[in-house]
Specification:
Number of strands: 9
CATH topology: Rossmann fold
Helix content: 40-55%
Radius of gyration: 18 Å
Low-confidence stretches: none
Bound molecules: adenosine-5'-diphosphate, guanosine-5'-monophosphate
Order of helices and strands: EHEEEHEEHEHEHHEHH
Mean pLDDT: 94
């Protein structure tokens, strides 16, 4: 049986540093695929359609949702987000690893369907630091920052059911933790069918 790819699902409150950590992981391990979500929110400066997200109108998103196009979907901060199902199935069946950057509602849906997925939650060191980072990023107005902070409190209460908790205080240490859990996932016996038999007959 060919090795199934690792589905690595990352969640974090907005501003915790998930995008920064994901970029580092994909730079070090370029073979990991990235699940490009669809969203109805406006692109931020520097975001590329088809690379960071597929930016859709609400009408298009709702049509695709009705056609069961998504593996999961959720409304986050007033916008719709969803993971296209077909690329997930294709990538994992090809034995390629795939990274998901999705919120806790979407992760809970994936947990029901992707039973061997690895779930990691990235936490800020404190709520104060989270607020500082959201302001420093400069991409959201005051009202949006407040919505994101309210949401963050709710999301943190869901972190307990994730497999791993990574506190992003020092960026390098948080990255080492993320890297370690990804590498450990690849060593799980369930992901290495036939390995022992191969060794026994070599
Ligand atoms: P997210 O994707 O979780 O919303 P970002 O990766 O955009 O978060 O990070 C939010 C802001 O915090 C960015 O300006 C980023 O440069 C900064 N940041 C990320 N990690 C750290 C860290 N460990 N210490 C200080 N600032 C950080
Ligand atoms: P942002 O707008 O900051 O890029 O993302 C806001 C939130 O939406 C983040 O928590 C991010 O993980 C989440 N998100 C991004 N894509 C998806 C998706 O496809 N599904 C779900 N459920 N959440 C998503």
């Amino acid at each position: 049986m060919p090795r199934q790819g690792i589905a690595l699902v990352l969640s974090a409150p907005s501003g915790a540093g998930k995008t920064t950590l994901v970029r580092k992981l994909l730079t070090e391990f370029p073979h990991i695929g990235y699940s490009i979500s669809c969203t109805t929110r406006q692109p931020r400066a520097g975001e590329v359609n088809g690379k960071d997200y597929h930016f859709l109108t609400r009408a298009t998103f709702e049509r695709l949702r009705a056609e069961n196009y998504f593996a999961e979907w959720a409304e986050v901060h007033g916008n719709l987000y969803g993971t296209p199902l077909a690329p997930v199935q294709d990538t994992l069946h090809q034995g390629r690893d795939l990274l998901f950057d999705i919120d806790v509602q979407g992760a809970a849906q994936l947990k029901l369907n992707l039973t061997e997925a690895v779930f990691a939650f990235i936490l800020p060191p404190s709520m104060l630091e989270l607020e500082n980072r959201l302001r420093a990023r400069g991409s959201d107005d005051e009202a949006t920052i407040n919505v994101r902070l309210d949401n963050a409190r709710k999301e943190l209460l869901e972190a307990h059911w994730y497999d791993y908790l990574v506190v992003n205080d020092d960026l390098d240490k948080a990255y080492e933790a993320l890297r370690a859990l990804y590498l450990a996932a690849g060593l799980e016996s369930c992901r290495n069918p036939g390995l022992v038999e191969t060794i026994l007959t070599a």
